[in-house]
UniProtKB/TrEMBL annotation:
Primary residence: other
Name listed for the protein in its UniProt record: TMM80 protein
GO biological process: non-motile cilium assembly
Pfam families: Transmemb_17
Keywords assigned: Cell projection, Membrane, Transmembrane, Transmembrane helix
Subcellular location: Cell projection, Cilium; Membrane
GO cellular component terms listed in the entry, alphabetical order: ciliary transition zone; membrane
Top-level taxonomy: Eukaryota, Metazoa, Chordata, Craniata, Vertebrata
Matches recorded under InterPro entries: Uncharacterised_TM-17
Residue ranges the record marks as coiled coil: none
Transmembrane segments: 12-34, 46-66, 78-102, 108-132
Topological type in the membrane: Multi-pass membrane protein
Amino acid sequence: NSHQLSSLPLQILFYVNGIYYTFYFLATLAMIVYKSQVFSYPDDFLAPDLTLLFIMAILEVLRLHLGSKGNLTEEEVPLGLSLAITVGSVILSVYFLVWQTYVLKADVIINTVLLLTYGLESVLKVTAITAFV
């Protein structure tokens, strides 16, 4: 069978998300440091915010790796796992959008963009999985 089922738009989105998440991580880390210096950041809230950011980064690496691998090898299992991990990433992004100790306008903007890319990526993943099955 010579039909290529892997999704080029999805692969491009994985690449763009990898770059965007690097920016997102560094910006969020810088803002947490900034907030801890400028605002009276409760010490018992700083560690959890940082921990969640690092957990999110680990999830993101796994999510993008599995998604990219599943798409390129046209296998639904890694792509499905990537989709499942996206749920965790969405929850963490919503945390940084709504529930973290201090939410700046920049937090709102970068998390909204991240959530939009997760949404688009999820639609493309489901479409690709459907094509593979």
